[in-house]
Amino acid sequence: MQAQTLSVPAVLRAGVVAGLLGGVLIDAYLLVTVVLIGHVATFEGFYQFVAAGAIGPAAYADGAGSALLGVAVHLFVSLSWGIGYAYLAATTPQLRTRPIVSGIAYGILVMLAMQLVEVAANMYKIPGPAAWFNTFFAHTLFFGLPVALSTSRTLRT
Question: What is the pLDDT of residues 103-120, one digit of tens each?
Answer without folding.
Answer: 999 999 999 998 888 777
